[in-house]
Amino acid sequence: MSAVHELTGTQVVVDSAGLVRKRSLKAPIAFAVVAVIGLILAFVAGRSGESTYRLGDRTQSLQLPDVALPTAGTVIACAMILAAMAALTFVFAMQYKKIPLWFTVIFAVVGIFLFLTWSAAGGIVPVTGLLFGALSLSVPLIFGALGGVIGERAGVVNVAIEAQFLFAAFTSALVASITGSYVAGLLGALVAGALVAAILAVFSITYVVTQVIVGVVLNVLITGLTSFLHGALMQPNAATLNSPPRFPRWAIPGLSEIPVLGPVFFNQTLIVYLAYIIVPLVTWALYRSRWGLRLRAVGEHPQAADTVGIKVNPTRFWNLLLAGAIAGIGGAYFTLGSVGAFDKEMAGGLGFIALAAVIFGGWDPWRATLAALLFGFTKNLETLLNNLGSPIPSEFMSMLPYVVTILAVVGFSGKSRAPAASGKPYVKG
Question: Where is the protein localized (predicted)?
């Protein structure tokens, strides 16, 4: 028995053993689109000369030599690899097989390498600087995505990540400026993120208001509130209320000397090191602990969870506060780890990108983190390509992170299923 969904093109087949098998062409089509772009860059808009990759970093004692590659030959080779891999995804789909994560990662790496090599014809790509900037831009996305994963696993769609970013950034700058302590500013950001989440929880869980509507209203409200307070309070008193101390970088001896990757991952601030701890901790707890079992239960089947004695709405409420606090760490990174001051609307829509990372990552902490890293890399790539003098107009380069977001969500979100009760309020009968 088989059936085809008219809108998504997903074919569902029940085999002789009674197992349900699904076949969707969304992901193969997304792979094919990227492969076609690569072929166009290789054979239609080909560029000559050499593309140089700078592997050394001036902060390290060991300096690696630059690597110069022939632009045309390298781009053609990468385009052919992309085309072969895209064709293989259709084979996977015809055989009702999922595309492995490692396959997608390799495809993305080859595609990025192709685009970088093509754009850098006659120029130099500082690899360590590119990766360092990408990680810096990814940090708030990682914390926001983790907050989104926890919220949705509990059954609440956390559309208010942008509001949590902004309020946490504002509060951390204010508290750190007054106290002179970046640690106090970080604690203030935790409270601020949890406070926004508490408002979302009260309206969506207690008063059963549509979660998406509450989230959108909070985003607008916090954007307006922080913008007003910035102009009325912070700007006239910038020296005392908007000059927070920034987290210093702490180089880990030995590890920071690893070529290329050492300065990227092991010469960072406390907030980045917190991400190294929180991501695996949340992943382990979600799948291996009693807390994670209860969390997933109220997000998948709240009625069954209630039957075995789990208090559904209180569990959702407290976990949403935890999600808001984690997202608040991402907000603190804007002011205490990156910019060094608060500015209105400084989150720049990254809260929505974090929400897209949750969907792209299949509501899994590790995958959502990888998605956040991809989006952060794309955002930093925009800046690098503008500096390299890429022939692509700057307006199109500004669109690049959002095009990647749309392509990723449309092409790959269908591979994973959202928690069954996500977005659905629970009213005990």
Answer: Cell membrane
